[in-house]
Amino acid sequence: MTAVIDVESGNLALGGRPVLRGISLSVKQGEVVALLGSNGSGKSTLVRGLMGLVKWSSGDVRLFDVSLPSFRDWHRVGYVPQQLAATSGVPATVKEVVSSGRLSRRRLLLPMRQADRAAVRSAIATVELTDRRHDAVSQLSSGQQQRVLIARALAGEPELFVLDEPNAGVDHHNQLGLARTLANLVDAGATVVVVLHELGPLAGLIDRAVLLQDGRIGYDVPPANDLTLQPTAGHAPVHHHPRSQPDHVPLGPGWEL
Amino acid sequence: MGTVTILDYPFMVRALLAALFTGLAAPAVGTYLVQRRLALMGDGIGHIAVTGVGLGLLTGRSPVWTAIAVAILGALLIELIRERGRAGGDVALALIFYGGIAGGVMVTGLAGGSAQTLYNYLFGSITTVSSQDVWVVVALAAGVIFIALGFAPQLFAVCQDEEFARAAGLRVRAYNITTSVLAAVTVTVAMRTVGLLLVSALMVVPVATAQQLTRSFKVTILLAMVLGAATSVGGVATAFYVDVPPGATIVLLALSCFVAAWPVGNLVRYRRRLRQPFGEGDGLQPHTVVPEEHGHDHGAACGHPAVPHGDHVDYVHDGHRHAVHGEHYDEH
Q1: What ipTM describes this predicted complex?
Q2: Has residue A247 got a pLDDT over 50?
Q3: Which range marks the domain in which residue A72 is found?
Q4: Domain at B6-270: CATH architecture
Q5: At residue A14, what are phi and psi to the nearest 5 degrees?
């Protein structure tokens, strides 16, 4: 199987402070990987590093088998940030924001083609916002805004989805909707990396849970494994069940209750 | 022979042409600045351009070109500060503003220029535009409009969510620099029309007016351009007939449009909020019959806001939501 994401001993420092240390992570095509960890453990930084938004200080990071600095096929990647960047000064409709997700596939100075319009339409329909497509994004609830961001990533028809805490501040109903959308994508062969605080309704989809602890990978296991019964050598948190308490990391050096 | 009209004066024709193109270009760029919450950037560039004008006067070159050069440098400096510094950026901007205007006054003084010379650039002197100048203004403004509209999808994405744009593979930095250069060129172009101290008004006020009434980016930018062009041409014409300063007239006209649009926008937003569908809830609400008698039947013509609620409509009156249920109304 081809590795969609491949990180070999990646180190990343922000403003001189080492944030990610010795990260090795490989995600295969079609896998659904949850990145877990407490606040400040480096989950979001890892995602931002994978998207090329922050620079790695060392290590080999590859997307679709191309080294990150020379990776150009960004239309293969759909990024869903945590929140809509502070609603901007000028109003923009749902359709306009979702359309910007199509830019990675569009040519400069040319209008949208049939396929572009169809992709935008179907992305909006997938997140059930068709009847609000001409409304300003700022008028939507935060759950609906989150869905706009997901639709924006869908519009580019990517093979890899990277979502940064898509369930933060989103009610149960919308979380179920996201789980359905992701399930459909996975059925269609997409690869998903999702930062989560708790697995919630997504639990059934996750193939692997990767726990970040203080910038290092703590464990990397299928979440269904009952760790209390089948302790894996080399994985420290044997008494933990990632599905029930993913956020409660074991106390180690430097950790406080 | 008919009466003499404004178009019989070649200098007025030139002034109107310059005003039209400036009025179209300034709000087009202004929309992106407002979207990035950099509404005052035009002001800052205007202040810096004063130094450019001074340098032109000192070296005997055309102040337009020295102003463009200095304005572009200033705009890039502002962009650099924005990109690098999170906090403290506004203080850095303030320093640049004051440095720019003080430098301009100083250099103009050294060049032996009078207050009147500088006044023409600070507040505009559109009726003194030469026929050569007018073509420069028209060409630059047309270029600005072409880039602002042609690259609108990309510029929109970058201004709307820079991180996403970068993750989508857009050359974010190139587009940011483009926006800055567009802003700098626009400021210098508008220098002759409304003057460096008022240019930002022409970039921002039509946008603020337009977005009172719009929901989409596309309509906002186009409406702002129409408003900008109308107030610019209208301002110059008014100034011709009433003998008032054209730059100030344009800005005051634009502001009065905003004052007129604001209550309308408020009303539109209020009504839109009122008619937003109610949540479906969990379907467990008790069945509460409204006890009061209704003087009329709720319907399309009764005047009470009809708000979609699941599969039916609630009529809102006096803080209650009444839904038709057979012969009576339910409290929802």
Answers
A1: 0.86
A2: no
A3: 3-217
A4: Orthogonal Bundle (1.10)
A5: -110, 120
